[in-house]
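Annex B. Sample input.
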Amino acid sequence: MKDLSINEKAYAKINLSLDIIEKLPSGMHGLESVMQTVSLFDKVFVTRESDSSGITIKCSDSSVPTDEKNTCYKAANEFFKHIGAEDFRITIAIDKHIPSMAGLGGGSADAAAVLRALNKLYGAGLDNDELRAVAARVGADVPFLIEGGCALCSGFGEAVSPIERKSSFYILLIKPDFGISTPMAYKQFDEKSIVSLCSSKALASALEAGDDIYELISNDLERAVMSNEIQAIKLILLSNGAKAAMMTGSGSCVFGLFDSLKDVLAAFYKLRNSYSFVNPCQTVDRYE
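Annex B, continued. Sample output.
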């Protein structure tokens, strides 16, 4: 059999809202979150090999694990279990552009891209609902990133309700020179007994109605982390034309929302040398 390859874009996401609505005895947290894919992306190349068996992962970023710890490895394993395949050989190559430990869902986006690619390479014919069921066994953000776009996600990320957003906006991403561990962010949320703002459903309604959303964005984990540098970046974004600014996910990346391309580019050119990662982007609709 001839080797076959497929490449997929893996778009980053931002959390326009993140509400932690419950903590289960298992330690897991139930969420409601409005997620939006943005135009920053990794490139994921998946090759179906003709010889041997197993999963090989390569990555342009040497800090990313290329063994069983990589979410792409787990995604591939879950896919093959789902379709009942036991003899397979694939190589996954990741051209990394989404920073790690940023709250941008880079690893989850890559895993979702692998699932889409394998579905095509093996002719499995899984629809997006079936792919999301597989994705839910990989990680909380992966089900949303199967299709991306804008959606209200709940539970542990497995329930994805698309939002027909009436307007687009531009985004400036700034990541400080430190990351935030997701488990540590949740630990701080629990220790500080923070009461959720629960704004996700109101935000989803505003997006569908075309109403102003800037007063509705919120992130319970940002309130838990309480980083002075993250707060400083928010103020810098707001003073440079952003209509709203907030940390995404468990951080440490902060996004600013802008009304126009002109405004976001003006802020980018002014701030691009202030931090090691400054990236202008825009909203991206669902994958075709």
